[in-house]
Design a protein that fits this description.
The complex is a heterodimer.
Chain A (H helix, E strand, L loop, with lengths): L5 E11 L5 E11 L3 E5 L6 H8 L7 E6 L2 E2 L8 H5 L2 E4 L11 H11 L4 H14 L15 H13 L5 E5 L7 H16 L3 E5 L3 H7 L3 E5 L2 E5 L7
Parallel strand pairs in A: 3-8, 3-9, 6-7, 7-8
Antiparallel strand pairs in A: 1-2, 1-4, 4-5, 9-10
Helix pairs in contact in A: 3-4, 3-5
Chain B lengths: L4 H13 L2 H8 L13 H38 E6 L4 H16 L4 E7 L1 H12 L3 H5 L4 E7 L1 H4 L3 H10 L3 E4 L2 H43 L1 H9 L4 H40 L14 H30 L4
Antiparallel strand pairs in B: 1-3, 1-4, 2-3
Helix pairs in contact in B: 3-9, 3-11, 3-12, 4-8, 9-12, 11-12
The chains are: A alpha/beta, B alpha+beta.
Amino acid sequence: MDAGKEIVRFEEVGLAYEDAPETLSNVTMTLGEGEFRFLTGPSGAGKTSLLKMIYLAHKPTRGNFFLFGENAAEAPREALPALRRRIGVVFQEFRLLDHLTAFENVALPMKVAGVNQNQYREDVSELLNWVGLGHRMGAKPATLSGGEKQRVALARALVSKPDLILADEPTGNVDPAMGERIMKLFVELNKLGAAVIVATHDLHLVQSLGKPVLRIADGKVSRSAGAGGAA
Amino acid sequence: MKMHETDQDAQADHEARDPAPRQRFFRNRGAPLLPEAGAAGAPLTAVIAVMSFLAVLAMASLLMVNRAASEWTSALRSEITVQIKGADEAEIAAGVSAALRVLEDTEGVIEATQRGREETAALLEPWLGEGNAQAFLNIPAIIEVKAAPELRSNLDLLRNRLAAAAPGATLDDHARWHNRLSSAARSGQAMAFGVFLLVMGAACAISIFAARAGLAANHEIVSVLHLVGATDDFIATEVQRRFFILGLRGALIGLAAALLALGLVGVAMRTGVAADSFLPAFSLGGFMILWLAAAPVATCLVTALTARLTVLKTLSRQY
């Protein structure tokens, strides 16, 4: 596997929601620059919670968590937006903003980063074209199908060319052909240097790409080598 | 990244038939990141309109009291009154002649006018009845004097000369009235300013509640904005912009309503029921409207800035 700078590093990290028992316990793992991991495990095992910690939606309740070399668990609030801008997230439930068009949703990371529209218009259009939604740029999420929303969410995650891509069940709402295209895109982006973590239930997909797998069970993370051919 | 030639062809074909998506995109490029308040914004606009209306009225009161006080005091400041008493009419007439000679020789006296006996008696009629004052009283003579400011600042010499020339003469510089009116005017101004501050305080409180409610209602949007890298300042600016627009809309409605109400008051004071009011005539001149417009502008700015600070404070408690 590629060796490079550490993108994510967990050291004995625990995560608990309020006073409940820990959802994740003693998580210790690293993800280097240009590495690809699948994240698997049964429903409710903590896959989404782990991703939420990485994309800085939840703060670990204990342990050390480094993101892009910075101690994210201790980082001041003002430092978080810059870290988040280096991450592209495909949320399981898409989390598109209903009052914005597909174009505006995809452009959101660029807009909040203060990029001039003239600079990102072409990128956004190209991405939407690539995911087959060039003709739906002006459509609001309410008028899009589940698969179309998924593709808009994917385009939004990738538009800012992130160093780390996190995808939570990215193929759950698309047909097999589109699912395969999406996974190939992740692999391509990974080859270009982005670190990728894909949480999925689709073991066939995991096996077909032959990438390393992180398995979560009972709040614990373990690593196993991927099966199948390389991508 | 072209991996889907057929889709692109299909899309190009679709756009050729239906150019609307591209037009929609360009039309919507400035869409706000927080949803339009729509019906939910109407109550806030209405409350801000009321606040703005009250703020304009408070400001108008302040300006009216200011102008009234200025007119009253300037009239009192420019005039002094010499009163000449005597045992009979002849003694009073002699005193008046002597006093007028003194006044003519005094530097700073612009004009000295003796009020007629009938005119003076008429001032007493409300209390004594018609014709009674002249019939039963030895009415003192009144000389009204328009004085230059330098004379007003030192009346002791004139007072002494008048006392020497006409023993029955007394000089009234209206200082007692001037002080009382000034004091009343200051109280009125303070009260109007207090009302203005109260209205601003109420606008702040409303803005805080509305901003918190807005954040709660748009929690998901705020969360997504954070996750794609938005800073608190960015989100606060979006909220501030929204509140500024709502505030401006409400402020303009309030200003229009207040100007209408004040216009009607002005007409009533000049022509109708309030024409005899001791307040000076009220008119909405350009300068006056500028001052009045400052009140809704202040309401609008207070609303927007309070919303911004509320959002920043609320977000600072989150991860």
